[in-house]
Amino acid sequence: SEMCIRDSPKDAIVYYNYDLAPHTSFKIGGKAKYFVIVKNEKTLKNLLSKCKKFFILGGGTNTLLSFKSYSGTVIKLGGNFSRLYVGKNKLTAMAGANLFSLCKLAKDSSLSGLEFLYGIPGTVGGAIFGNAGAFEEEVLGHVSRVKVFRNGKIFWTKKFSSSHRNTSFKKDGSIILGAQFSLSPGDKKEIEEKMKDLLARRKQTQPYGAFCAGSIFKRLEVGDQTIFPAKIIDNLGLKGVKIGGAKVSEKHAGFIVNFEKASATDVLRLIKKIKKIVYKTNKLKSKINKRTCLAC
Question: What pTM does this model have?
Fold first, then answer.
């Protein structure tokens, strides 16, 4: 059978025919045949050796699940994978830890460098996998090494490459298990003020709290020019455009919001419509920024 785990509840919790929508910030998604919260590396290794079809779901904040049912195993990292450790001018975070906890620990430890991440929802694993960023900073710019599961082995590596919202981990089959962050000593009050300021800016410019999944499209590099799709979408008057229960946010044209029980099809059709209009008027192909899990 697809699901062969026999571990105790302290190692993993297994759910059957499980609704995934509540585990995504879009609140969209079908049911998984198996949903497993794995609590330690040994159990994860055991599970992955037996699963033929699976994917890892982090915070679900940068994901559009477009299947009605998934016949494989969806894995979420919990338990030991939520741990955080403080060292001298460094933090080590396991992949299941959320970014709010990471930023708070950095602040409480008077370590500066991760303030830009404050307010980004999601997990450390997801942030590393997609090189999350904001305010012209990216997470892998502050990471010295990453713990991965790859080709049946668990190990720390310093060998990885990244670009805007992209990493070599997406190509080499790595599952992110943790990361070590190199930070600078700072003043706790100043760190806290910067975090508060950046969160306020985020709330002012983005549909914070709405059912969405961050910026839909990647920025484009054309020659030496950086083109921001949100600006083009806004200039084309597409804010508020709807398909079904999905619409382009009136607050930020780079976001699509689930405002009324949207389906994945609604979101994908709206993305397609935007891309068609943008390409027709600007001769640009906007690259999608989501991790889209299509029907399998």
Answer: 0.88
Contact in structure between 28 and 267 (CB atoms under 8 Å): yes
CA atoms lying within 13 Å on the CB side of residue 138: 13
- Within the chain, residue ranges assigned H as helices are 41-50, 99-108, 124-130, 169-172, 188-205, 229-235, 264-282
9 burial type by CB count under 10 A (0-12 exposed, 13-18 middle, 19+ buried): exposed
C-alpha to C-alpha distance for 240 and 247, rounded to whole angstroms: 6
Give me the helix-helix angle, 99-108 and 188-205, nearest 10°: 150
pLDDT along the chain (296 residues), means of 10: 49 93 95 95 93 92 92 95 95 96 96 94 94 87 95 93 82 94 97 95 92 87 81 93 97 95 96 89 64 42
Within the chain, what is the greatest distance between any pair of CA atoms? 57
Cα 227 to its chain centre, rounded Å, is: 22
Beta strand pairing call for 54-56 and 12-19: unpaired
Report how far apart, in Å, the C-alpha atoms of 211 and of each of 96, 133, 257 are: 21, 20, 6
Say which residues have a Cβ less than 8 Å from residue 283's Cβ, sequence separation at least 6. none
Are 120 and 98 a contacting pair, CB within 8 Å? no
Q: Position of tokens 């403080």?
A: 86
